User: What shape does this take?
Amino acid sequence: MFFENYKSELIATGILLLVLLIIRFILTTLITKISRKQGINLARIHLINRYVSVTLFLIALIIIPFIYGTKASDLIVLFSSVFAVIGIGLFAIWSILSNITSGIIMFFSFPYKVGDKIQIHDKDFPLEGIIEDIRAFQLHLRLENGDLVTYPNNLMLQKAVTLIEKDAISDDDIASI
Assistant: This one.
């Protein structure tokens, strides 16, 4: 009975999901190819691909209710309530979101990569070391004395950074870290 009543909606939902899967495949393939040409770490590629998948999933969650005939005014009430709760929660963790956003920006336009020796010009805490890893929230910097410093991504975009030596460590050294 359910399948007979909602046959056209189920078909439209299937088509939407198929289109979004094709878009996801195209985007992840494109991101992977561009990233490998630029020598970006495989873990960072997977992270950005995960962001693409979650974004497409959220788009599907927004479109599917319209397929089943939900009115925009009903969805506005639902989304405003949900966004109010999420907004309060996100305000409490804005620093984490700032670092994630910075991580995405750094993925596409960061001029330094793993293995480069850099200097961060911070008047309170100047650093010089080799980039070991660039993650979603922070950058791992190995100092000359052997200490490992995790530096927040949002500060990397706010501070002046100087490239001292390109590819200061080899790919074998990176793999062993």
Remarks:
- Residues 115 and 170 are 7 Å apart (CA to CA).
